[in-house]
Amino acid sequence: MDLGIAGRWAVVCAASKGLGKGCAKALAVEGANLVINARGKADLEDAAQEFRACNPNIEVHVVAGDIGTEAVRSAMLLACPRVDILVNNNGGPPPGDFRDWSRDDWLKAVDANMVTPIELIKATVDSMADNGFGRVVNITSGAVKAPIDILGLSNGARSGLTGFIAGLARQPSLAANNVTINNLLPGAFDTERLRNNLSTTAQKTNQDLNLLREQRVQGIPSRRFGTADEFGAFCAFLCSEQAGYMTGQNLLLDGGSYPGTF
């Protein structure tokens, strides 16, 4: 299927590894030009080279730095001639016990995983509407539907973003002008973050890491962790011409783990 986004411009945050990289790669294959961001410049440059190799017809611009800072966000937007697609993504806050978290810990989590994507959306969606095309995909977490006890900071901040998007996506000034805003909720994907969380749990509970990993896999109906490439392919479809009638949705990709009907 031709997704109809060749020649479009996409801004992808946290694109040097994991799910963000999977999304940027899928968009590159479809012919979308990229402006990509991550904190580590070396990894980001490596990713850019990989994306260019996927499709020599695209442009890839690199902006390294913390997307949570206004200067980096401005630099990304300046590097993009026209934002047609925005993929919001950021590293999640650390796991732990809420009894140990300070007010600053909460503010940092909300700023990174709620306020930062809202700032990027605010800077781009009206121009998308003027152009008659826009796709915003926010990578949140399966924990929005099924909270994970040790990820309270993430549960709270990402749920706040979810509530905000539910109202924004349905504004006629956006939806009626072919601008869609959706959230992708990953379950257990084989990423650095998942591996770190498993390691933390293993250390705190004195369990064998490999055994803990296998137990986690056995709790997933698909009996495996997801891959960044399949996540990216789903993201690319949400950014396609064909996905113009889907907006304001929370789309769970978790191998069947969530047990609810709704």
Structural notes for this entry:
With 262 residues, the protein is of the alpha/beta class. The chain has two domains: 206 residues, 3-Layer(aba) Sandwich (Rossmann fold); 36 residues, no CATH class. Helix content is 46%, strand content 14%. The chain has nine helices and seven strands, in the order E-H-E-H-E-H-E-H-E-H-H-E-H-H-H-E. It has a seven-stranded parallel beta sheet with strand order 3-2-1-4-5-6-7, with helices on both faces. 39% of the residues are buried. It comes from Halomonas korlensis. InterPro entries: NAD(P)-bd_dom_sf (IPR036291), SDR (IPR050259), SDR_fam (IPR002347).
What are the SSEs and their pairings?
Layout lengths: L8 E4 L5 H12 L3 E6 L2 H14 L5 E5 L5 H10 L5 E4 L14 H29 L2 E6 L12 H17 L3 H4 L3 E8 L5 H14 L3 H10 L9 H11 L11 E4 L9
Parallel strand pairs: 1-2, 1-4, 2-3, 4-5, 5-6, 6-7
Helix pairs in contact: 1-2, 1-9, 4-5
Protein name: 3-oxoacyl-[acyl-carrier protein] reductase
Organism: Halomonas korlensis
Family: Belongs to the short-chain dehydrogenases/reductases (SDR) family.
Summed up, what is this model?
The protein is α/β, with parallel strands linked by helices. The protein has helices at residues 18-29, 41-54, 70-79, 103-131, 152-168, 172-175, 192-205, 209-218, 228-238, and strands at residues 9-12, 33-38, 60-64, 85-88, 134-139, 179-186, 250-253.
